[in-house]
């Protein structure tokens, strides 16, 4: 039987969403999924839009031009089903994170020490001993990221903020600011299937998928964890960093070394493409 074409217009969360949707036999039997990555502005062929039966998309505003959600929805067949899916983002674990270009997983505070020209030993000592609560209003920053995420949630009928607000302090719900863990991705998939009137995915199949982004866990500053009482992010925790377990102190040393030696591909550096620490 010919399956309907399901187009997914999403960021890195699109692939694990598809994997989880396919844990529902009724979805898998009905739809052939095709992912187009939104943040790299991957174009969607007109032919695919013309034969689309289900369009799953993360909301993009008018500034995205032809890739804006409104523009893409206007090109779908009249009988196509369209559903806005979650685009989850959480800065709460990393209040000094920055999305500035030029280096991956930026930390504004650490960059400030580095750019001041201090030695590696001085930078590491200052950063590891930094009392984040004395430097920043951590509670206000957490509320700000939750508030922004509620605004993003408003675009989709699949509500996930209650889960984040209830559980972010009990377990690490995100590996990076935009890499949600299994509980959130499973929740999103269940929500999509519910909106489509399809059964929930098989629990055993979901469990077998594991962490949707297992390669990298961005370390959390221990003083941030101490302020909020997050037991899962203490100074002794070892994080998965591209195939090896790394403490927060070792992470900091790698970051400083890379910045001071002009590394621009920090991910490649951590993966061993260059000489890591």
Describe the structure.
The protein is an alpha/beta fold. 42% of the residues lie in helices and 14% in strands. It is built from 14 helices and 10 strands. The chain has helices at 14-21, 25-30, 46-50, 69-74, 108-115, 120-128, 132-135, 138-153, 161-167, 182-195, 203-209, 222-228, 248-260, 266-271; strands at residues 4-10, 31-37, 52-57, 81-84, 97-98, 106-107, 174-176, 179-180, 239-241, 244-246. The strands form 4 sheets. Strands 2-1-3-4 form a 4-stranded parallel beta sheet. It has a two-stranded antiparallel sheet with strand order 5-6. A two-stranded antiparallel sheet has the order 7-8. Helix 6 packs antiparallel against helix 13 (248-260). The longest helix is centred in the middle third of the chain and has 16 residues, at 138-153. It is elongated and about 65 Å long. The termini are far apart. The model has no long low-confidence stretch (mean pLDDT 96).
Q: Top keywords for this entry?
A:
four-stranded parallel beta sheet; 10 strands; alpha/beta; elongated; two-stranded antiparallel ribbon; 14 helices; 277 residues
Which regions contain 5 or more consecutive residues with pLDDT less than 50? none
Radius of gyration: 21 Å
Total of helices: 14
The total count of strands amounts to: 10
Q: Can you give the mean pLDDT?
A: 96
Main sheet: strands, sense, barrel = 4 strands, parallel
Strand order of the largest sheet: 2-1-3-4
First-to-last CA distance? 54 Å
Order of helices and strands: EHHEHEHEEEHHHHHEEHHHEEHH
What overall geometry do the principal axes of the alpha carbons give?
Answer: elongated
Query: What is the helix fraction of residues, given as a range?
Result: 40-55%
* Beta-strand percentage range: 5-15%
Structural class: alpha/beta
């Amino acid at each position: 039987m010919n399956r309907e074409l399901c187009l997914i217009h999403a960021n890195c969360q699109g692939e694990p969403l598809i994997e989880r949707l396919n844990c529902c036999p009724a979805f898998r039997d009905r739809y052939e999924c095709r992912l187009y990555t939104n943040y790299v502005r991957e174009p969607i062929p007109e032919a695919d839009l013309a034969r689309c039966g289900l369009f799953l998309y993360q909301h993009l505003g008018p500034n995205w031009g032809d890739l804006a959600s409104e523009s893409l929805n206007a090109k779908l067949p009249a009988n196509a089903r369209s559903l806005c899916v979650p685009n989850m983002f959480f800065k709460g674990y990393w209040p000094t994170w920055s999305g500035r270009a030029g280096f991956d997983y930026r930390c504004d505070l650490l960059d400030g020490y580095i750019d001041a020209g201090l030695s590696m030993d001085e930078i590491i000592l200052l950063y590891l001993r930094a009392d984040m609560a004395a430097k920043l209003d951590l509670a206000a920053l957490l509320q700000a990221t939750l508030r922004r995420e509620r605004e993003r949630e408003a675009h989709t009928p699949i509500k996930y903020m209650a889960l984040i607000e209830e559980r972010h302090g009990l377990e690490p719900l995100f590996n990076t600011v935009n890499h949600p863990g299994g509980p959130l991705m499973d929740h999103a998939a269940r929500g999509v299937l519910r909106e489509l009137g399809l059964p929930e995915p098989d629990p055993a199949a979901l469990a077998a998928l594991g962490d949707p982004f297992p390669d990298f866990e961005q370390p959390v500053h221990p003083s941030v964890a101490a302020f909020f009482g997050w037991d899962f992010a203490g100074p002794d925790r070892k994080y998965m960093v591209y195939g090896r377990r790394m403490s927060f102190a070792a992470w900091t040393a790698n970051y400083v070394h890379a910045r001071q030696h002009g590394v621009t591909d920090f991910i490649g550096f951590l993966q061993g493409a260059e000489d890591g620490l």
